[in-house]
Amino acid sequence: MRLSSVFIIIAFIMLAALSGCSNLSHDTHEPVTEENIHNAAEDDENYKDNADNNKENNNEETKSSIRSWKDMYQSKWTFCGDLDNNYPIDDTGQVLIAYGNDNQISGYHSDTYLYGLNKDTGEKIWSVYGGYYPIHYCINEPENTILIGTKPSVDDDTRLQCIEITTGKLLWEKIFSFEIRRLAITDKTVAVQPYNLNTIMVLDVTNGEVLWEKELEQNEVLISLQRQMNNIIVSQKDGLAAYEPSSGQMKWKVEGNLFPESPHPMIMLPDVIESKQYQILSKNTNTQWITFEDCFRKIDFNTGEVLDSIPTGGINLLYLLDGEFSIVKSYEKEDNGNLFTKSFSLYSNSQKNELFSKNDTLLGAVVYQNKLIYTTPEKIKCISLDTSDLLWECGYSFDPPEAYSPLIIQNRLVIVSNDKIHVFNPDSGEYLYQVDDYNLPVYPILDIPVVDHSPSVIYVSGNEIYISRNDGHLDALILK
Questions:
Q1: Which among 30, 213, 235, 275 would be 20 to 30 A from 222, CA to CA?
Q2: What are the angstrom distances between the C-alpha of 385 and each of 182, 390, 424, 427?
């Protein structure tokens, strides 16, 4: 074979390779010509240009989907606590109550604090060290006082302190040898239930002097709310009883079994919980939902009148979204003893009836402009309250939110997943952006015996947002 012929064959093979690589979607049997070679070169340059453009567009899209709340909102103050995490757990209007802990599971942590912060400046007015054991507190807002019970370690006595909320002045202190199980307050008294003692002790709220004591039967429990009540309420085996605070005389009793057997060793169901936002904002102690064996009953705590009832229907959880709506979550028990949600229904508190039900696994929910927006392990969904029709749904580009309910902030849907904040359009489900300047505490364990058993990492009050950070800071932002 002549050398020139070899060069021609090699050139032909190279041209064919170039033509085939220029665009893998082209027909690989297309004849090789000089025109094709020229077009292939142009295609290659265009591919590079398009790749660069796509890269720039993707960068711009990423930038547009990440925003800073400190740029969007005005910073009001930052509080730095003594421990890694600080959570807003209560609000008196003038003072924000914050809980600090080392974010360890109970039994392994050793440090907790309760703080009173000036809402205008973020200044620490007072702090109480809780140590290893749970911190118990209740607030008497008309008298501007807070009662705090602590037992820092096994070797320490229990301290019950009465503190002036806005100044931090210690009004009185009582020392007990027992650990406090429950704490409740009325306008003139504070009731204390010890652990491992079948009794309640009622003290004068002005000086801590003991007024009267009452023996309890086994499994009788003092109803403990974080706000002032008009009566001392005790859940008994055969009903709910109210006692006159000063004398201890029974005023009324609602008959019924309050102690259904729990289907799960770690979860007491049926039960009643509140959404974290509603939990802080709700100051109503005149009426409460109580779990009876056959139903949830809404009780007037002043008179004992049953105002409403919802059948428990098995293993159910009554989830109070706000003053108007509640969710009844239904659970089933697996062979291994674990519980899983199978369905839910939306209940109107004002109309006293079920609006609709869905066979879906609801994690958390919020009501916004006549729509129910809720999270599942796979999606975020939006349902019309009028028709119960699905308006929109979207999947997650992040881990499903397991610990927190959705929030509405300035007409935006805010979802916390792990330590990140994600923001959506609540009208369409469109993902808007991720907040890049806040890393939040992950799945904290709260030892304060409040209804929801875990704190808020984001709390909205009027035109202000309070946000926990995982570096020991608590920020206050003003919505613009």
A1: 275
A2: 39, 10, 20, 14
Residues 364, 327: contact at Cβ < 8 Å?
A: no
What sign for the dihedral angle of Cα 111, 115, 119, 124?
negative
Contact 392, 382 (CB under 8 A): yes
Task: Of 381, 450, 454, give the one whose Cα is nearest residue 415.
Answer: 381
Q: Are 189 and 233 in contact (CB under 8 A)?
A: no
Residue 20 in this model has a pLDDT that exceeds 60: no
Phi, psi of 50 (to 5 degrees): -65, -40
pTM over 0.85: no
Closest among 74, 70, 167, 78 to 122, alpha carbons compared: 78
**Which residues fall within 8 angstroms of residue 13, CB to CB, at 6 or more apart?**
none
Among 44-58, 188-202, 322-336, 417-431, whose mean pLDDT is lowest?
44-58
Computed on alpha carbons and rounded to an integer, the radius of gyration of the chain in Å comes to: 30
| DSSP 8-state secondary structure symbol assigned to residue 142 | G
Q: Which pLDDT band, with edges at 50, 70 and 90, does 84 fall under? A: confident
Q: Can you tell me the mean pLDDT for 20-31?
A: 32
With tokens 């890269």, the residue in question is 55
**pLDDT at res. 17:** 36
CA 411-413-419 angle, 5° bins = 135
What is d(CA 160, CA 158) in angstroms, rounded to the nearest whole number?
7
